[in-house]
Amino acid sequence: MKPPALAITTGEPAGVGPELCAKLASRPWPARLVLIGDRGLLAERARMTGTAISLRHYLPGDAAQVGVLDVLHVPLAHSCQPGQLSVANAGYVLKTLDLAIDGCLSGEFAAMVTAPVQKSVINDAGIVFSGHTEYLAERTGTPRVVMMLAGEYGMGDAHPWMRVALATTHLPLKSVSAVLTAEALTRTIRILHADLRDKFGLPLPRILVAGLNPHAGEAGHMGREEIEVIEPVLAELRREGMDLIGPLPADTLFTPRQLARGDAVLAMYHDQGLPVLKFATFGGGINVTLGLPIIRTSVDHGTALDLAGTGRADGGSLEAAIHCALGMSATRANPNLDSSLS
């Protein structure tokens, strides 16, 4: 049986993405890694960072070869130096994403893994771009997606995985309550539950749901969103058979004892859940887009323009994203397989 082919988009050319992708050649993988980007750029960053690399032109029918990275070549629009952004390359970045998305939709690729992009330079080029998540949703015709970050945490020999999904994403804090409707929350939980089951192999996932307000509203004295929105939604979904715990006060939810009770946490807003996760997992954490018809994972860090070309950037998050994508694609191919990221 042929190993799966994974599309790896190389990200913002002025950032650390190209060199992190080049470093993937230093170890064997149980998959065919297809880098989507400029071949010359990858070779140059490998040379600058002292990375031994062997690249070949990607042909769909070729067999995987240990120590060799396939490249689906997309030429840069403008020459690029580490750390120096150019709006001329905004279209190049989106082209790499389009090729990965199309390949996943057609079945050519089992999953896509994305290196970081610089949202600001794409917008400066006159292209409205909120981020990978929104772009993937639009390109695949997906009405609603859910952002989930994950990573190992803990001390000693025990390294459980923390998964944190978001009910709302990139919003001003003052807008969260208005956006957190019963309909929106219901759809988010349905997506989270379905993908934990179908892509992570958890037959009956247990989800810990945070409250919105301090102390989960303190019985309405610190806010009524828990009483009026969150609790009724959880009650309805429990009647459908979902295992949901909450709403829980966020200040005590992220303790090892509480986290051990569930398979994932649903935070109500971005900075309720992600600072905790990134503190516990930074360097090895990943981003997963749930609800898509394809599998997409990503690093949990940015373009690190100040590190580009130095060889000091840590590739742990990219490697973890690849491992997760492999596990998810294996579970999708064999629904009885548990890909719990361990």
UniProtKB/TrEMBL annotation:
HAMAP family: PdxA. Its main location: cytoplasm. Its EC number is 1.1.1.262. Substrate binds at residues 132-133, 278, 287, 296. This is 4-hydroxythreonine-4-phosphate dehydrogenase. Pathway: Cofactor biosynthesis; pyridoxine 5'-phosphate biosynthesis; pyridoxine 5'-phosphate from D-erythrose 4-phosphate: step 4/5. GO terms for molecular function: 4-hydroxythreonine-4-phosphate dehydrogenase activity; cobalt ion binding; magnesium ion binding; NAD binding; zinc ion binding. It is found in: Cytoplasm. Homodimer. Its cofactor is Zn(2+); Mg(2+); Co(2+). GO terms for cellular component: cytoplasm. Pfam families: PdxA. A divalent metal cation binds at residues 170, 215, 270. The active site is located at the dimer interface. Belongs to the PdxA family. It catalyses: 4-(phosphooxy)-L-threonine + NAD(+) = 3-amino-2-oxopropyl phosphate + CO2 + NADH. Binds 1 divalent metal cation per subunit. Can use ions such as Zn(2+), Mg(2+) or Co(2+).
